[in-house]
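Long-time lurker. I teach an intro course on protein structure, and each term I like to show students one example going from raw sequence to a predicted 3D structure in token notation. This year I'd like something fresh instead of my usual example. Would anyone be willing to generate the tokens for the chain below so I can use it in lecture? Attribution to the forum is fine with me.
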Amino acid sequence: MAETGLASLGLDVRSLIFQVVNFAVLALVLYRFAFRPLLRVLEKRQRTITESLKSAADIERTKEEAAASAQQIVQTARQQAEAIITRSTQEGSHLREQAQAAGEKAAAELMTRAEASIIQKVAAARTQLKRETLGLVAAATKRVLGEKLDDEKDQALITAALAAVQPPAKPQ
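-- Reply from a regular --
Happy to contribute to a lecture. Here you go:
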């Protein structure tokens, strides 16, 4: 008998069907137990890589924000430090001026008190000198005249003697 169809090519149909069924079972087993878990692992790895890239981008953005924030904080701190230094310098100058003014005022008060004290002591010394001079003039007059004058004559004589000896008063 003459072979027709696939048999003429040297293929056995039963064997071919068996091979096709065998291949289909093998493909199904591979798909179920190898490809599907492999695809899951690949998808999981892809998600992990995507998340890692996103996380890395977030970290980079956070790092840049932190650097910008740190720069801003440093700049603000510098400005505040400069303001504090300026304010401290101004306050120091103000305090120095106040201390100088207080010192000048205290020195002026001390000079005024010293001048007043000197004026009082000079006045007291003049008064004391005047009394002593009056006493000396009275004693000298008594010796010169040899007798004691009455109080009225004594006073007139002392006043005249003082007027002749006393220098003119200085204006103060």
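Some talking points for your students: DSSP finds three helices and no strands in the chain. Helices lie at 6-9, 13-145, 151-165.
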